[in-house]
Every structure is written in C-alpha cells, then in structure tokens.
C-alpha cells in the first residue's frame, strides 16, 4: 500500500518515467516486527531483494546481519556499515576466487550444498564455518524455488562430514521453503529434515549448532498473508517439537518480507487497444513490464495490486502488457486483470508491493529503455 510519504513524494517531485519509491519507515517497522516475532533468531537480510544503499545502511544501523549472493553484495553490506562477522556468503554456487576474496574481506560463514563446493571453501577460506542447504518441496509458495539449490538430507550428512574432515567448522544446515510462502507448516516439514541431519552427525561426534531457516516470509499483494507474529509462533513451535529444549542457534533471511510492502512503482498507461472490433478484452500497455522490473509476473506468479485514479468506476478484465518489442513482455493474460473501463492513455497507475525484486530484475537497456529508477525516502 502506498504510504502518505510515498504519495507526497510523487505529488511534489513528479518524477518522469516509471520509478520505484521505497519508504524506509516501513522497512524499519518490518525489521522490528521480525525481531519481535523471532527474538532468538538472528536476522540476515537477503540483499538481493533490494540492495539500495539507504536500505542497507538503515538495517545495518538497526543491528541486522546480511545474506549475500556475490562479492559485490558483500562489499555493499560492508560499505553500509555491517561488520564482516554479520555477513553470510549464502550462494551455494561460487567461483573459488570469489570465496578467496570474501575470505580476504573477513567473511567466515559460507553456504554449501555439495562436496565440490566444500573443497573450494576449504582451499580458499580455511577454517571457516559452513552450513549445508537441504532441499525442500516449496509447497505452498507462490514463487517456489527449483532443485537448483540444496541436496537431500542424506547427502547433507556427507557434505558436512567432509567439511569437518577438511578442517572446516561444520556449523549447521539451511533450507528455503520457497518465496512468498503462505503455509505456516512449511517450516515444520523442513525442520524434520534438519533434525535428521543433526542427529545423524551427532552420533559420529560432529555437533551442529545452527539452523538457517531461510526466507520465504511473504508480503501482501492481492491476498492477505499471515503476520510476522504468526510465522514466529509456528516456527518456534516447530523448533520446540523437533529439538526440544536444545534448540540450536537460528537464522532467518527475510528479503521480500522486509522490503516488499515498502515500495510502490509509479507507471503510465502508454496504449489501450483491442485485437479485433468484436474483442471483449482490452490490451492495456504500461511503460513498465517484465524487462523493466516486473519479472516476477512470469507465469503470473506474483499478482501485484494496481491502483488507479479511476478505481471508483466500473471495471472489466484486460490483458496487461509492457512496452518492449518482445512477445514475452505480457504480465497478465491467462488470468486477465480487472481495470477501470474509463482508464485512458496517459493515466498514471501505482503498482503496490514492489519494494522487492524489481530494481535488481530490471534490464540494463533492453530496447533502449533505461533501468528502473529508484527513490528511497
């Protein structure tokens, strides 16, 4: 939802072209909500969701840690004031020279999901802590994660055993229940696997100490989602169920849940047309599309709330598309989007809940369109 601060900014600044505006007050509120919901868990903000320096500086000042996917993101977190001990290199796919650079920068916490990655870390970052990512099914997520990351629990045991053998600190396991996860039981299912890895290695004298419960915390789009407190209660209940009174250290990695509802994209209607005289469905083209930052409309997975100045008028379904010369640049066609019949060329629309995964998905210059502008207030 557009805050009054965002509306005032757009009214006074009148930025031209599509742009994202992020309200830092909302980010601050979200951080405190996560801290209250899971007070015993360390918060590692997923930098990939939105790496705006202003956001990183705010979170660093609040005491947040950071989950990074590259050396560039590590450097962003350091520049924002986060000490190296509060930064995790959470990508399981890393060049060995990047591991070495991260180690040189002081990073000592690395994600792995195979023996080969463990061997890279052992060579380039000796003695570091590693956690192994375990595969999850992602059921209940609107943006499920593929089998690209993680391994089955039995292999995670082999991976962490090998890490200990090579002198690394076998620190724990991680999982990700899928982005925009609305099933409160998803963490319970994943913690079943985590507990299995802990127990198997404990029998061999390797004592794991940490569970990284990943992200997946949703932001509100068109449907209501549970509050942070509900997730906290469900996750704490699952931890108690599986680990009893010996709950390990825990980490959460909110990205979308931290910044998604803090941002609004201002866009403009470029064209409204039909494909035939007797066509009942209008095509509405905006000056932003999949290549301008709305990549998560792929397969219509994320349906953003769209607000217009004509929302009191009658609405009808339309196909919503972007401005580029690419046939894939269509956001909503399978399930058309209801927009006012009075909507006209030149009207501005606000696309809400767009604080996460928009600026970083925006193409550099596809068709000559500039990357999505961002303002953080």
Automatic annotation (TrEMBL):
Q: What is its EC number?
A: 4.1.1.17
To which protein family does this belong? Belongs to the Orn/Lys/Arg decarboxylase class-II family.
Q: Which UniProt keywords apply?
A: Lyase, Pyridoxal phosphate
Requisite cofactors: pyridoxal 5'-phosphate
Looking at the record, the residues that make up the Orn/DAP/Arg decarboxylase 2 N-terminal domain are 26-259
List where the protein spans the membrane.
none
Q: What is this protein called?
A: ornithine decarboxylase
Instruction: Describe which pathway this protein belongs to, using the record's wording.
Output: Amine and polyamine biosynthesis; putrescine biosynthesis via L-ornithine pathway; putrescine from L-ornithine: step 1/1
């Amino acid at each position: 939802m557009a805050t009054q601060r965002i509306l005032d900014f757009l009214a006074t600044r009148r930025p031209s072209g599509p742009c994202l505006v992020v309200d830092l007050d909302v980010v601050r509120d979200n951080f405190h909500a996560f801290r209250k919901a899971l007070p015993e868990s360390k918060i590692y903000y997923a930098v990939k969701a939105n790496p705006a320096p202003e956001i990183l500086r705010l979170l660093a000042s609040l005491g947040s840690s950071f989950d990074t996917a590259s050396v560039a993101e590590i450097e962003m977190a350091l520049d924002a004031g986060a000490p190296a001990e509060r930064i995790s290199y959470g990508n399981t796919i890393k060049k060995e020279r990047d591991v070495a650079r991260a180690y040189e920068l002081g990073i000592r916490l690395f994600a792995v999901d195979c023996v080969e990655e463990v061997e890279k870390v052992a060579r380039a970052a000796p003695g570091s802590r590693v956690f192994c990512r375990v595969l999850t099914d992602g059921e209940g997520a609107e943006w499920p994660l593929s089998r690209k990351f993680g391994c089955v629990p039995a292999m995670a045991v082999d991976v962490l055993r090998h890490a200990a053998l090579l002198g690394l600190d076998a620190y724990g396991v991680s999982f990700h229940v899928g982005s925009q996860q609305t099933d409160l039981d998803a963490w319970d299912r994943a913690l079943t696997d985590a507990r299995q890895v802990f127990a198997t290695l404990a029998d061999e004298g390797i004592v794991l100490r940490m569970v990284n419960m990943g992200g997946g915390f949703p932001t509100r789009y068109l449907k209501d989602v549970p509050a942070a407190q509900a997730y906290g209660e469900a996750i704490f209940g699952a931890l108690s169920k599986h680990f009893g009174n010996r709950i390990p250290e825990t980490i959460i990695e909110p990205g979308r849940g931290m910044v998604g509802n803090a941002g609004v994209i201002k866009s403009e209607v470029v064209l409204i047309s039909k494909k035939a005289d007797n066509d009942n469905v209008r095509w509405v083209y905006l000056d932003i599309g999949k290549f301008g930052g709305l990549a998560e409309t792929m397969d219509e997975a994320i349906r953003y709330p769209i607000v217009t100045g004509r929302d009191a008028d009658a609405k009808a379904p339309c196909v919503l598309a972007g401005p580029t010369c690419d046939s894939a640049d269509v956001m909503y066609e399978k399930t058309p989007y209801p927009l006012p019949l009075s909507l006209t060329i030149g009207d501005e629309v606000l696309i809400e809940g767009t604080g996460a995964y928009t600026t970083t998905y925006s193409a550099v210059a596809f068709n000559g369109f500039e990357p999505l502008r961002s303002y953080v207030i």
